[in-house]
Amino acid sequence: MRKKLLLLMLVISLVFVFFSGCVPFGVSSTGLKLYVTDYNSGYVVSGATVKVYYEGTKIMEGTTNDKGLVFFNIPTNVDSGYIDFVISKEGYAVSRFNNVKFEMEKTFTIETQLRKPSVGKTTTEIPAEINVKFYEDSSKATELILNDNELTVNDDIYYEVKVNTSEYDVKYIYVKLGSIPGAGFLTNPRAIFYESPAEGTLSISGFTGITPLYIVTFDQNENMVVNVYYLNIKKEEVSVENPYEVEKEDPSIFAYTRRGGVAFYNNPIKIDKKVVPDFERSSGIEAAPMKDTNLWVEINWVLWKDSTASLTTDEPEAYVIYRSFDGETFEEIATVPEGYNYYRDKSPQLEVGKEVWYKVAAKYSNFVATPTLLGSVIPLDLFEIKYLNPTDGATNVSINPVFAWEVINPVTSEEGTPLYYFDIWLYDNTVNELGYYSLSVPGYPYYSFLATSATAVAFEFNNPPFGWWVDFALGDWYQYDSLQKNKTYEWGNELAVAIVADEDSEAYSIYADQNNVIDPFGVEAEIYNTFTTGEN
Question: How far is it, in rounded angstroms, from Cα 341 to Cα 346?
Fold first, then answer.
């Protein structure tokens, strides 16, 4: 159960600073709920300091809890306004948001990241300044002027972004309408640039009303600055006689919980093959994933042009995605243009063991069709493996060894019984005689793997659970019924995945997937066990 959040108390002087001329009582309030992770879909950052500024003056300060969450209850006597906030922590870079709009008696939620630095320490709360100009088109003949950080538009516009950094050079510039951009795998479609100035055309397709435009820059030390502008998008009313009610894929929802975290801004985290994991620790994931893991949910649907209704319904402009954590109250979380039939939810509000539901609706200008319920999924916890035989460093091992391992912390789910997928790889690393072997089903030799609901596996080399060994160096079946005498080998699982599937979803717990069977990036085997055979 989530801990109750304590509202931060303001001293009277700060109230007067924030709201010049108002009394410190009898005012309304606005809420800011801020989630912080160290990368998109990654681990929560607890103990981060968040400072809130109004017109350049700090008016509040708080600290993220063990869920990476901090909540501010900000008194106000104005209908709306803008705040800035800065996130920092020792050993991390700096993240800064400028021009974030608040509205009286409403709570707004922002999910963002605080990255580890890649160069050195950052000594400023303003790592970069972003300046942007808007134009009617690419000729730049007519500039569009912001009015109180807001711009009214009825068509696509052209932008020019210039970034001045304080300590480190520009690494990326992102531009995205509707949600905060980042790595394309999780936030497409968005524009990305690698130097300043940056310019391009901003499409307003799929959006109407007040819509945030996020311009984000990262410097070479992973400091992030986000400027938010607001477009008041006005479009003509449309009459939709035959709206498309989105058709489902089967299944439609896929939850990924994976070891060996991908930070989405550098190389995947590498695991030392010789490090033996500590099986005594708890591996349960609370809220967002533990360190060096990822958790995201991917949803899919049938595009209008590929649907059975394409001849009898109108083509939509975009698709709107909704999410619920109770199956009843849904909130809009994203809009993607027509042509996209997927969305990846990286929210730190996702949790293992916590069911989440999704809907998708076709959108036509300012009209949204009836949403289709895609279903729900319960993300799985991580499991670990203990290698029983041959153990790492074993000597005088039989030439017909028993390979044995067991699952530590088996996964459980209310959606069904997990099915484990394992492969096994055996390497002969003798100088000038490299061999690598794995199992194949009968017939033509090719890479295969075992599917089982059992949490322990044991078999002799000459009596595998299916098929026979393949010598992949030769591209043919292994010709002997035992290993060679007095030779050193390594073995391990390069595929170890648990899957729970039902009629509308699949949930994956990925311990290893070096050949990308399930995982889009691949997860290296955690350990290879070295052993040496004897005479028998």
Answer: 17
